[in-house]
Amino acid sequence: MDPIRKSILASRNSAADDNAFISDLNSIIKHRGVTVCQTIFQVLTSLELPIEKAAEYWRQVIKHREEMISALHRNVDLLPALCDFLSTSPDSFQKPKIVEESDFTRVIEGTTRDSLTFLFNRPYFDQIFAQHTSLAIRYNTDLSILFIDVDNFKDVNDTYGHQVGDVTLQNISQIIRQEKRDSDVAARYGGEEFVLLMPHTENIHAYVLAERIRARIEQMELDANGEPYKVTISGGLASFPANAQNPEDLLKKADSALYLAKGAGKNVISFYREEKRRYLRVKFHQAIRIKDLGFNNALSYHGTSKDICIGGILFENKDPLPIGARIQLSVPIKNDDPLLLIGTVVRVEAFNNHRYDIGMTISFKEMEKIANNEIAGFLKDTLEGE
Hints:
Elements: H1 3-14, H2 18-32, H3 35-44, H4 51-72, H5 78-88, H6 101-112, H7 122-139, E1 143-150, H8 153-160, H9 162-179, E2 185-190, E3 193-199, H10 203-219, E4 222-224, E5 227-229, E6 233-240, H11 247-263, E7 269-271, E8 281-283, E9 287-292, E10 300-309, E11 312-317, E12 326-334, E13 337-352, E14 355-362, H12 365-385
Parallel strand pairs: 6-7
Antiparallel strand pairs: 1-3, 1-6, 2-3, 4-5, 8-10, 9-10, 9-12, 10-11, 11-14, 12-13, 13-14
């Protein structure tokens, strides 16, 4: 679609009233030139006018509307004023073709809304995101963004079929619409991913809203041909100016926070946080035993730890493990007594044909408390011994 036409339709959908719509159109004309006037008449009517005539008519339409408002002592919308002007213009348009409001709405909805969920679509979100980030930067106001991903959505499609998957997405989008505030912008970002833009919202208040959405989706009861099933979501949250100073970084950091939520066991909302190396990390080379907890006949591996911190452990292994896999590590820390760590694989990197670096975070609160106490003691002893 022509970008000018797209801008006109998007403005018509987002403008608070016709005065704001006209102001937006005049701003587009100022930045892009009088050729915009030609497109305005193409969008709002079926008229194909020369550029110069379209520009002159646009000025006359605005003046005509103001005269109608003054004469009638009430507000007059743009389309009735436009129709009246064309019907009484010197060129005598006998039957000016004005777009029906329902047809016009369908055109707008088709360019800004996702057809399945009826949330805004990705192109429209990108445009609104750019506008809001510019305003936040200019006026130094808070702006938060939440990335949402449906956990294990492929399993829903594979088990119940894509029609059930579509209904699942529709139910999730309905909850997002119900919980978001009027000033928030919700969109389907792609596939099973959603995004929520929260203007004038700092990260703590954004988290409260995100957690409310997560909890409602977790509690939602769904049905697939008489068989009940449930879904959960993971969310990544980042805020301006706390986490980023430009739009590109804000999106990347919200996505990074979503990655952390997935790695923490899913069904959680994670704040963006800086690289985990802010935790005290020391080299730790020990033979470890790895057990995959994802199967009844769990596989066991032998690997070598590389470094360790309170937030997790990095180890080397000859076999790759899938991201998100839950594993148990038997790690000798004190007096050769093994410490059992249960966590989630969040990083897998191959560094030659037969070896992989695997990062694991501890995802269970009970296990994390025990492990953190033990690791903190180990780190303290290590540093004191240096």
